[in-house]
Amino acid sequence: MPSPGCIAPRPEKKDCMTILTRLEQWKERGIISSEQHTLLAGLSRSEPFSLFLELNILLYAGILAFVGGLGWTVSTWSQQLGDVLVLTILSAMLAACFWYCFSRAPAWSPRETSSPGLVLDYVLYLGSLIWSVELAYVENRFHLLSGQWDLYLLATAGLFFFLAYRFDNRFVLSLALSSLAGWFGLTVSHWPSHQDAAYRRYAILYSLMTGGAGAILQRRGLKPHFFGTYLNIAANVLFWALLSGVFNREGYVVWLLCLLAACGASLAWGIKRRQFSFVAYAAVYGYVGVSAILVRDMSDGTAILSYFFVTGIAMLVLIVQIARRFGREA
Amino acid sequence: MRAYSASSEEAVRARDLLKDWAGENFLTAAQYQRMEQETVCDSRRTNIFLRLVLFLFTLIIVGAAVALFFVVFLSNPGQRTTGVFLLIFAVLSYAGAELAVSQARLYRYGIEEALAACSVGFLCVGTQGAFFSGHRFAQDGAEFLVPAAGAISSLWIWHRFGLPYASLAAMIFVLWLPGYWTSSHPAQHSIVAAFYAVGLSIVAAVRPRHRSTYLNDRYSIAEALLWLGIYVAINLQLSSVNLLGQWWGGPRTTAAEFTRPFYWATWVLIWCLPPIVLARGVRRKDRFVIAAGAIAAILTLVTNKSYLDWQRHTWDPVLLGALLIGVALFIRRWLAAGPGQIRHGFTAQRLSGKDKQWMSVGSTALGLISPNVITPSPQAGSPDVRFGGGDSGGGGATSDF
Predicted ipTM? Predict the structure, then answer.
């Protein structure tokens, strides 16, 4: 039965079936059972309608607003409220969050574990953010580790890694990775000179460390589904660091070679594992790096535009070939 | 009228749904394989990452080709000449997009999308250059034709190629229109809202016919964007011309800029609209419209104090956050308490693999962003000392705390 949506009077009209019509036919031909038909037809009609994603977004936005406001309030009114009151409130909230998580969480498993409910993940995330607010407050008021700010970040990263692995939580894993990156950044900021070069080296070290650690943990079967998060973050930090070296006026050849090697590895990984974000990284970062070298000494507008025209077509052809051979699935 | 046949679109939709259901184990591997074979379509598709890269490189090629043409063949062309050639390039780009679809059978492939986007851009800049730069038409008050051409061509591309963001582009072009007709701010807001309302009524009238077809999602996105557009147009705290200034601590929009009845009418409307949109979205089980209603509701709460010129407090975000968390938890509990965890056809359970994918990508990205977002910047003249010192940080423990 043609659907009302098939309005174009085309030769293929007989094939124009909505998913409901197809499901009906598959049921009649015995490809799916009646129960499956009922379920799938319902799902395609949004019956029942899942609010899973919406509730998650609402919780995330709520926690972000809550902790943002908490930090703002604490930093603005700390003298009026007094340190004791502020720390008591923050500690009580922190304790409540962690108590909730540890008391409700299922037994730990090295494999992927589904959360017992929507709430646990967000309570853990809330607790982690409150921990950060409290730690920052303590240091800024009492200067316990003045001059060694980075140690807080390292300790925080350690705690977040533990929590992420204990509760199988990607939000907190991302917090851990960003805290670790912050520790690397702050450590370098203590160095007196050659800031850019030092940052670059530490960024590369960070990306190699996180990528390597992610790979080792995956091989050992410790939450192997986290590996994608490690690898994406490590790849982006690495590419940015290498690109910053390529943009240097001197000594850029080594960085260019490293960038090309990284692009090759990213491309091979992306194609082999069908993770096309890595193909995209290789194409975009590689193109920017190589173009920066080739175009920097060109002064003729025609030559520059010709370069972009020709290389753009070459890249397009290459990506289309990759898409046709490997990346057909949408 | 549409670039893709209805059967192709339905086949694409069926394949996506089958993949999703197989991922959720609603279908066995054997069932999936057999059913997938029956939904073969001739369109060429690719994944989102390669699509984005192809879009980018097509833009580079088209941009470079057009610039090269002007550099090589025209030395110091006048604005009119430039405009005429850009109009020609607009036609060529559009023809390229049509060819990519009809000959290469590209579907959401990045290439045809970039060509279509370029055609709209060239059309607008070309129209401006050819007809309104230093010419007599500029004094005729016909310059509104530039954004009008952009809006109409974007709408055509939305209709022809089904690109959801083309409808957003059309709405953005509409924003420029009233500026050519009147200098009155209330009139400008009203005209924009009226345009969106007309669009909304057309979409609402057409949608019911396509409830169970591939077009439902397309109309759903368009309707949600139009609701949001109307909301932003009537919320004077959001759509003020001085919006950027306000965000950076400049003077807020006040009732003095508008007539009092208009100002307070919009205040009433920003409270009335979110429940209407939410109710419509819930009644129709329309994900995008529900999202539009929820965003509008949150924006109303955020901008209400500015509207009333009340003092903002540092704990306002805490209250907002607590409210959002409370609402989410209440809805979840209420749904979970229903038979089979379903109430009135709604559930809090995850039913689609796409949701899991979104959560996975979102949690990684948002987890990295959130520490920076929540870091507060102290208010000027705050009664407390300002913390400071370090440079950066993660996990929210920034040195600018």
Answer: 0.87
